[in-house]
Amino acid sequence: ELRHRASPWQRNLGYPLAMLGLLALTGISVLIVCFHVLELLLDDAAMPRGMQQDASLGQVSFSIFGSFGAALQVVLIFYLMVSSVVGFYSSPLFTRLLPQRQDTPLTKIIGNCVSLLVLSSALPVFSRTLGITRFDLLGDFGRSNWLGNFYIVFLYNMSFAGLTTLCLVKKVSWAVQAELIRALGEDR
């Protein structure tokens, strides 16, 4: 219903550009994680432990690409935050927790607050473990003991890269396949 009410510009330009942006962000995050996996295999310094150097904020860039890389890290972390919230509320176990307009009981509101607090607290550790950023924010998240375990960090990165690639290929290939079937007229 929303698609039918959308303007032709929004349907023909807005939706495809948004889809390409999401595909690009997903692809970039998978590439960064794959690069981090290679770093893990070659160098022990790539482990997401606490920061080794005593760098003051603003004096040393935390990205090899400078300001552009730092901006890309911010965009990717925001994308991971939004996609984890969407994924959380899309899972069959938590769809009932989704608030309804002017009909949400207090227990659901408290449940949503707790869920969003847990997701936002896990985001810095998540982004550090995947190698998207090396910055610790204000908490020293690198002191967690399991972040020094190579096998846990390696499997975490590999599972993220593998599952994200699988979802990306599945969604894109099924959509392309459905459009080809529809275009060839074999859906009848």
Automatic annotation (TrEMBL):
Gene Ontology terms: cellular component:
endoplasmic reticulum membrane; plasma membrane
Instruction: Tell me the GO molecular function terms.
Output: transmembrane signaling receptor activity
GO biological process entries: receptor-mediated endocytosis; Wnt signaling pathway
- Give the location in the cell: Cell membrane; Endoplasmic reticulum membrane
Q: What InterPro entries has UniProt attached to this entry?
A: LIMR, LMBR1-like_membr_prot
Q: How does it sit in the membrane?
A: Multi-pass membrane protein
Q: Where are the transmembrane segments?
A: 20-42, 62-89, 109-126, 146-169
Q: Record's superkingdom?
A: Eukaryota
**Keywords from the named record:** Cell membrane, Endocytosis, Endoplasmic reticulum, Membrane, Receptor, Transmembrane, Transmembrane helix, Wnt signaling pathway
The family annotation for this protein states:
Belongs to the LIMR family.
What's the protein called, per UniProt?
LMBRL protein
